[in-house]
């Protein structure tokens, strides 16, 4: 993941004017028939600080359940 972020930065997609970076992924565990929707948000402030929020929703069998939150 870090290599991909560095590549985006080197290509000019991420620079000092970037305010947010979002990562979305859907994962599946065949052994448990379990899906996980993952969203990570990085908020970049002008002072160089970073705040990350993590959201996860798992689904399988009876429906979806939220298992994470921002912070």
In short:
The chain has 71 residues and is mainly beta. It has one helix at residues 2-10, and strands at 20-29, 34-44, 50-60, 63-66. The longest helix is centred in the N-terminal third of the chain and has 9 residues, at 2-10.
Could you characterize the architecture of this molecule?
- 13% of the residues lie in helices and 51% in strands.
- The chain has 71 residues and is mostly beta strands.
- It has a 4-stranded antiparallel beta sheet, with no helix packed on it.
- The radius of gyration is 15 Å and the shape is elongated.
- The protein starts with a helix and ends in a 5-residue tail after the last strand.
């Amino acid at each position: 993941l870090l290599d991909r972020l560095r590549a985006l930065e080197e290509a000019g997609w991420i620079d000092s004017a970037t305010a947010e970076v979002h990562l979305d992924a859907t994962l599946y565990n065949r052994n448990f028939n379990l899906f996980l929707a993952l969203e990570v948000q990085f908020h970049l402030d002008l002072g160089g600080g970073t705040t990350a929020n993590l959201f996860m929703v798992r689904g399988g069998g009876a429906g979806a359940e939220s298992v994470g939150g921002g912070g």
